Amino acid sequence: MSTIAAGPFEVSLKPLTPYDQAPGSRIARMSLDKRYRGDLEATSVGEMLSAGTAVSGSAAYVAIERVTGTLDGRDGSFALSHIASMTRGAPDLRISVVPDSGTDGLAGISGTMQIDISGGKHSYRFEYRLADHS
Fold it and tell me: Which of 11-20, 32-41, 42-51 is the least confident region?
């Protein structure tokens, strides 16, 4: 049975040197630092790679972040994988727990996350399952 965790989060993006630095390249690289609040009390670090296009509203990004904190009273960490694209303004975002990435009390975690950005504020909805440690 899945459980839902929700709450706000803050994110800080910092530019990193992209691997492709050719003139006209639209590839960017960023570091991610997040602070989750609410049902998931955690911090995360990660990296994002994005590609823009000449068409307004079309782009893509991939990212990996390692989340460390407390969820459902359990301490540990897990990794999230992001795969996103936007086609002329229509978004398609998929965020999921990397299989077998959970540690300590979060070992065996699986699930998917949705994010919402409204009025410049970020929030998450995390549907997850935890391994039974009984």
Answer: 11-20
Longest dimension (CA), the chain: 57
Which residue segment(s) compose the domain that 36 sits in? 3-15+25-129
Amino acid at 26: R
Does residue 20 lie within any of the structural domains?
no
Residue 126 and residue 90: Cα distance in Å, rounded?
A: 22
User: In terms of pTM, does the model score above 0.90?
Assistant: yes
- 69 in a structural domain: yes
E strands, the chain, in order: 3-16, 27-36, 40-52, 59-71, 74-87, 90-97, 110-118, 121-129
Q: Are strands 74-87 and 40-52 parallel, antiparallel or unpaired?
A: unpaired
89, part of any domain:
yes
Summarised one tens digit per residue, pLDDT across range 54-82 is 899 999 999 999 999 999 999 999 999 99
CA angle 105, 98, 8 (to 5 degrees): 70
